[in-house]
Write a structure and sequence with these properties.
single chain, about 325 residues, mainly alpha, two-stranded antiparallel ribbon, 15 helices, about 0% strand
């Protein structure tokens, strides 16, 4: 066996290209926010308005990161919204119906989401079925369980302290956004500085070379899905804290943003790359599209249309650049 056979293939998205993508996204965020501030007559620059805008960035950031770690190993997680919605209503039910203290309900919900993520990974490994199909199946099951827990009602009679945390801010920066930023930093450190994180990228970039190097691709798949479940559990906690109540609609609109943030941020669908900062900035871009829709009283379907077109264009451009490379 030659040395070239054992080396991981060249990454389709280079660090220089990632930096270029992140710089472009940062420019889009700054220019987009400035444009919306001008067209709002300066109202968007007021503290409470800024806090409102930033409050609804936390969940897109978290679900984008949850999808990113699975994309890094060349998989997809279609159960992001269903798992987040089920976990959120379960936390609400534990507090509102069963009287659990907030800290215990939150920990139990996050632990369960992490376990379900691990189950997704184990199913992929043992069945040898692509994660797209496996998570599609678990998504269907979780949607049913979510409705089973909450039915047609809205649970709102849970911990006032948790709701206060969801409304709290530091200099108009919501605490829940700070939580999302901490998670993003932790993911970046894990992927770039830890041995399992480097194994995750190696396995996603070239599974054969990773296996020849002694890395268990199966364990890495389980690790990626488990980490995804953990981050989704945190997103569910943020949702419960910031929403007036939880019902069966929670998580129903998470799937597209979960793919949009990492793909627009520069993550390759074929695995082997991550873009934490790009994912965070792309989540801000998606949020600005939603703010523009509300500000100009546009039909809500325009948000999905614009985001979908941007995601499709990003994928096409990435593929063309890969072929040229």
């Amino acid at each position: 066996m030659t040395d070239t056979a054992a080396k991981p293939r060249a990454r389709r998205i280079t660090p220089a290209r990632l930096r270029s993508t992140e710089a472009t996204l940062l420019a889009v965020v700054v220019v987009g926010f400035a444009a919306l501030a001008v067209t709002s007559g300066g109202d968007l620059l007021r503290g409470p308005a800024i806090q409102t805008v930033l409050t609804y960035v936390a969940v897109p950031v978290l679900i984008g990161l949850a999808q990113m770690v699975v994309l890094a190993v060349g998989q997809m997680n279609l159960s992001v919204g269903a798992l987040g919605g089920f976990t959120a209503v379960l936390m609400g039910s534990m507090m509102g119906d069963a009287g659990w203290p907030a800290w215990l309900a939150v920990l139990a919900g996050i632990a369960l989401a992490t376990a379900i993520g691990a189950v997704n990974g184990l199913l992929v490994v043992f069945t040898r079925i692509n994660g797209f199909v496996v998570t599609l199946a678990t998504m269907t099951v979780l949607i049913g369980l979510q409705y089973r827990v909450v039915g047609t009602r809205t649970i709102a009679n849970y911990s006032p302290g948790l709701k206060a945390l969801g409304a709290a801010s530091v200099a108009y920066v919501p605490v829940i956004l700070l939580v999302a930023v901490v998670v993003a930093v932790a993911v970046a450190v894990f992927v770039r500085r830890s041995v399992p994180g480097r194994w995750l990228l190696a396995s996603g970039g070239n599974p054969l070379a990773a296996r020849l190097s002694g890395i268990s691709n199966d364990r890495i798949l389980v690790l990626a899905h488990t980490l995804s479940g953990l981050i989704i559990g945190i997103a569910a906690m943020v949702t419960v804290a910031s929403a007036p109540g939880v019902n069966s609609s929670i998580g129903g609109d998470w799937l597209l943003p979960s793919f949009a943030a990492p793909i627009i941020g520069g993550v390759a669908l074929t695995g082997g790359s991550v873009a934490v900062l790009g994912t965070v900035l792309a989540a801000f871009v998606v949020r600005l599209v939603d703010v523009a829709r509300a500000q100009f009283s546009l039909d809500p379907s325009w948000v999905s249309l614009v985001v979908g077109v941007v995601v499709l264009g990003t994928v096409v451009l990435t593929q063309r650049r890969s072929r040229r490379g």
